[in-house]
Design a protein that fits this description.
The chain is of the alpha+beta class. The protein contains eleven helices and 15 strands. Strands 1, 2, 3, 4, 5, 6, 7, 12, 13, 14 and 15 form an eleven-stranded mixed beta sheet that branches. It has a two-stranded antiparallel ribbon with strand order 8-9. It has a two-stranded antiparallel ribbon with strand order 10-11.
């Protein structure tokens, strides 16, 4: 097959590369165990291949969805009976896990040869401002590129997602997608998702080393403390600037409990002073207090590393890494961190020519877990850099996989639509090595397409796979995927009307109630 030419349908199955796992994935969907599994398979294949659809009902105009668009709600209704949608009771469906398990990639290898899997936990939003019949909507933050510093609000649902980091071509297929209520804690749900993956006996994660990458929103005791108890999990989590950490106490034990915390340091590039202003509520008197903040850089590093790299814009840079071992955090909200030390890594990017910092502030990472010593300083920085793969995926899921485009008044249907998007992503992931690149003539000179042309064995990106997967689907026998003959439904009787749907108010987060002990 020539580069950028369309493939002709073949008379046999699996004329592409490898052993055609894509066909096996589609056949496993036909045996998924739901009442409308054939229609669901058509929906997943249509969502993965139809580029012109701007909403789910337009998938019925595609080549691979052979059903009427009214079947979409019936498919989601059948999934509600098969897959649980309650985030508080179960964050990982055993049925969905059994479907995806045969197509998990093999474990990756550290520089020491240790096999491992990589997770990425993050939160995003499902914006639904014009759906008053959906129950449980609340205010979520959305991006605003018009007014600097403005953080406007929209209406929708927060999503807690745990991804599997493939480490190639930006792939990060989701393992668990949960739609949260406004009062749910995203950090607690993320902990439950990771624990469910690690403790599931049918999954390989519990017996191998697993790396959990997360942003600064998870860099706190409520996330690090419960995951520390998992023996084979190492967390690589970003920490906020100016965060306080402590070295273990080296003081001699005296009367009472032995001291735990020693010197206090701040995660900043240099030591300095900060003034806090306070106004007494009763008297109205304003007071100022200046605090000396000692930087972590003043403490002698336990490890140092430096290597050359090329940034995404082509700029030549030097990556300088410093590592401090066995630091502590203060316990928060009952999550003890006294006996759970972690390592801190400072990442600073310098221009190779001028040796000046490229960014104003350095990046600080926490390496937490009982096996943290097996992760080198340079590997920790590279693993966290892969965390940014989830951001392009969310944009692709919203624009191409119609993540937020389903119009439905049913709350449960919206949760099941996330499962459809999740399965479609895995279908594209399985087909990444079996799909030939197929793009428009004016796109053949793009750097990513040129790289795919020079290295045909390299996996395609998710966008490249979606553009070429329809040619792979055309090689399949259509017979198992075509709808069965059935009688036409009776439809609605003349004069029959539907009752008006209930409209629900927009929910707000309840203020936190601080209970202080009474003074006698």
């Amino acid at each position: 097959m020539k580069f950028f030419e369309k493939a002709e349908p073949c008379a046999h199955l699996g004329c592409m590369k490898n052993d055609n796992q894509t066909l096996q994935f589609c056949q496993s969907l036909l045996g998924f165990g739901v009442s409308r599994r054939r229609a669901m398979t058509n929906l997943v294949m249509g969502l993965s291949a139809h580029e012109g659809a701007r909403c789910p009902v337009e998938l019925s105009e595609g080549e691979f969805f052979h059903y009427h668009y009214s079947n979409i709600s019936k498919i989601l209704e059948s999934l509600c009976d098969r897959l649980p949608a309650d985030s508080s009771s179960k964050v990982l469906s055993a049925t969905l896990t059994a479907l995806l398990r045969p197509f998990f990639p093999p474990p990756r290898r550290l520089s020491t040869g240790t096999p491992y899997y990589a997770f990425t936990s993050d939160t995003t939003k499902l914006v639904k401002p014009h759906s008053p019949c959906l129950k449980g909507r609340g205010y979520v933050q959305v991006a605003n590129n018009v007014i600097a510093g403005n953080r406007p609000l929209s209406v929708g649902y927060p999503l807690a997602v745990t991804h599997l980091g493939a480490g190639e071509a930006g792939w990060c297929p989701p393992l668990s997608m949960v739609m949260l209520e406004i009062g749910d804690d995203p950090t607690g749900v993320a902990v439950a998702q990771v624990k469910a993956l690690m403790e599931a006996p049918e999954l390989p994660f519990g017996t191998e080393l697993c790396l959990e990458r997360a942003d600064s929103g998870f860099g706190k005791a409520v996330f690090l403390s419960p995951l520390y108890d998992l023996n084979n999990l190492v967390g690589i989590v970003r920490l906020r600037q100016s965060m306080r950490v402590w070295s273990p106490s080296d003081a001699a034990p005296g009367k009472g409990a032995p001291p735990v915390y020693g010197e206090k340091y701040y995660l900043s590039a240099a030591s300095g002073e900060k003034t806090y202003h306070r106004t007494d509520k009763k008297t109205g008197v304003k007071t100022a207090k200046t605090v000396c903040q000692r930087s972590i850089v003043d403490k002698k590093a336990d490890d140092m590393a430096q290597y050359e790299a090329t940034l995404g814009n082509g700029r030549q840079a030097s990556i300088c890494l410093l590592r401090w071992n066995n630091l502590l955090l203060r316990s928060k909200k009952g999550h003890s961190m006294k006996k759970k030390p972690f390592d801190v890594v400072q990442v600073q990017v310098l221009d190779r020519g001028t040796q000046k910092p490229v960014f104003d502030r350095p990046l600080f990472l926490a390496i937490s877990g009982k096996r943290k010593g097996e992760v080198t300083t340079q590997e920790a920085q590279r693993q966290y850099r892969e965390r940014y793969d989830v951001e392009p995926y969310y944009r692709f899921a919203q624009r191409s996989l119609l993540l937020d485009k389903l119009q439905t008044p049913e709350h449960d249907h919206l949760q099941q639509w996330l499962r459809i998007v999740q399965i479609s992503t895995w279908l594209l992931f399985v087909a990444r090595n079996e799909t030939e690149i197929n793009c428009q003539k004016w796109q053949r000179y793009l750097p990513k397409n040129q790289h795919a042309k020079k290295t045909p064995d390299a996996p395609l990106t998710i966008a490249q796979t979606r553009k070429g997967i329809k040619n792979l689907f055309r090689t399949f026998d259509k017979t198992p995927f075509l709808p069965l003959k059935c009688k036409k439904g009776k439809g609605r009787k003349k004069g029959q009307t539907q009752p008006q749907r209930t409209k629900y108010p927009i929910l707000r987060k309840q203020p936190k109630i601080i209970v202080r002990p009474s003074r006698i």
